[in-house]
Amino acid sequence: MAMNEPSTVLMIELLSLEHEQAGYQIEIGLTRDIGYARRMLTIDEFTYEQLNALAPYFGERMRLSLYPKWDPFRNSYYSTLIIMNQTFSETMYFACSEYYVSQLLQLKQEDDPHVQEEIAVETTPPSIHPARKLRKRKSKRPIGRLALQSIMFACLIVVLLSLRMGGQDMDRAEGLEGPSLGASAEEIDQIVSLPFIPPIGKIETAPIQQDESEPTPEPSKPAPEPSEPPQEQTKRYEEYKLTGDKYKYSLPKGYVALSFDDGPSKYTKEIVDILVEHEVAATFLFVGNKVARNVEAVKYANEHQMTIGSHSWDHSKMTDNGVKENQNNLAKANQVLEQITQSPITVFRPPYGAINDKLAAKVTEQQMKVLLWNRDSEDWRRKTPEDVIQFVHHTDPSGGVYLFHEKKITVEALPAIIQYLQGKNMKFVIFK
């Protein structure tokens, strides 16, 4: 299952919103699997005004979505800005133009070695103060209000004359029907300045077809008694060995992985039982300071062949910690987990997905590999199991590393999620 993957974007953070004489721009923090850099992105006036209307901006991190969606009722695209700090997360919606959407669509497919070299230069993400308002530079308008109104009136006359004379339809600057980019969400964004791309047609995600050459999966066998670890479990999953040369966030086509953060908890055993019943497995990323209250849950997951990984000792934002503090944090979490599993902890997922070179170096020192994700269920903010199920149904599962949490609604949704993925002939993976 080895892959030669291009350097891929993991996250985009909005740093500033600016209006200069040359045009409209946003400054972004671009995190890829090989490093971090700041960039300036040129946007159109419509999208700028929509973002500007959300001001003031507060929060330690402001993450832009890479997946705008088409709203057929309003005949326009919309996207989201997620404002986060250690105590809350708020999602804000804004309309955006087709030009903005076309840039994102282009950049998801980009594989430019020169861009990779540039990104690798700077590796420490900026720290945005929770109460810092994004700077908005004052507009420098060389044209007076009256002159601008005159130009707009003249343009309107030209448009009306063109329509009356039966000329060709003019291209719309915003709101053309296009792809629903949320259907195959890769978690994470990349933006650079690009020339305008012509309007794109509607793209529909086709269902994944079963390979004719592959044998039909055998019918499910009765699950072993939950109270006893299975001796010879029928495996409908494979092990994926992490190499550590890049942060792992995706899988080859046809494979899928389930991962659960923020345990162990009172739900761990129930999640394991559901997985065993469906003859699959998952990767559990446990928080060290929760282990003492849930020792049996960790033991139970380990006995049933689940992968046990570290999610830090205290779920702090480790990129804000000192080097020595992170070293102790990682070692302390590993120690309590290894006492139960009696084997090395080799998989690490940083809280909030926040990682930089200094933290990555400490992870490597302790013989661990970084596991991220590309399908975020956001089950922590959803209200019903059906909401979680619908998220899975509206994403392309092929190659997905799904991020879930140990929550009641997720437990209730899990059987339907597994059955859906099995119905798509996905091969399940756990990480080692």
UniProtKB/TrEMBL annotation:
Q: Which GO terms describe its biological process?
A: carbohydrate metabolic process
Q: Give residue ranges for domain NodB homology.
A: 254-429
Q: Which InterPro entries match?
A: Glyco_hydro/deAcase_b/a-brl, NODB_dom, Polysacc_deacetylase_ArnD
Q: Where is this region: Disordered?
A: 207-235
Q: Which Pfam family name is an example for this entry?
A: Polysacc_deac_1
Looking up PROSITE patterns in the UniProt record yields: NODB
Going by the UniProt record, its keywords in alphabetical order are: Membrane, Transmembrane, Transmembrane helix
- Transmembrane parts of this sequence: 143-163
* Compositionally biased tracts (Pro residues): 216-229
Q: Name one GO molecular function term.
A: hydrolase activity, acting on carbon-nitrogen (but not peptide) bonds
Please indicate if the UniProt record lists RNA-binding as a keyword.
no
Q: What is this protein called?
A: NodB homology domain-containing protein
Q: Which organism's genome codes for this protein?
A: Paenibacillus etheri
